[in-house]
């Protein structure tokens, strides 16, 4: 979308026309054009961040996968024969592998 804004701006289209066509604000159009003028093609890179930090470490994740691939009987649980997501989550919390986990 940034590239389209820059290209149309270079063709002489006013910011108001770009805003209507691209369904963005005047400020966005100006920010993109100014960034492109300052940094060139680097300004078109989205610069996504990785989102929020991981709450479960890779080691814990591997342990969860290992437990999920076993049967409850292998852990001394005889009241059911297969894991449901809720039962697996409860087992992981009882085993203190995680403090809380969603299904």
Provide keyphrases for this structure:
mainly alpha, 103 residues, single chain
How large is the count of helical segments? Answer: 5
Low-pLDDT residue intervals, each spanning 5 or more residues: none
Total domain count? 2
**Rg, nearest Å:** 26 Å
Structure report:
- This protein has five helices and no strands.
- It has about 100 residues and is an all-alpha fold.
- The model has no long low-confidence stretch (mean pLDDT about 90).
Short summary of the structure?
The chain is mainly alpha-helical. Helix content is 50%, strand content 0%.
Please render the helix and strand layout as text.
Blueprint: H1 2-10, H2 15-22, H3 26-39, H4 58-68, H5 85-94
Helix pairs in contact: 1-3, 2-3
């Amino acid at each position: 979308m940034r590239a389209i804004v820059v290209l149309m701006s270079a063709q002489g289209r006013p910011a108001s026309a770009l805003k209507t066509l691209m369904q963005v604000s005047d400020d966005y159009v100006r920010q993109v054009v100014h960034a492109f003028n300052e940094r060139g093609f680097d300004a078109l890179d989205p610069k996504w961040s990785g989102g929020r930090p991981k709450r479960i470490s890779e080691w814990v994740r591997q342990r969860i996968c290992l437990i999920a691939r076993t049967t409850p009987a292998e852990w001394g649980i005889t009241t059911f024969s297969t894991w449901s997501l809720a039962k697996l989550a409860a087992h992981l919390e009882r085993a203190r592998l995680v403090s809380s986990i969603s299904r």
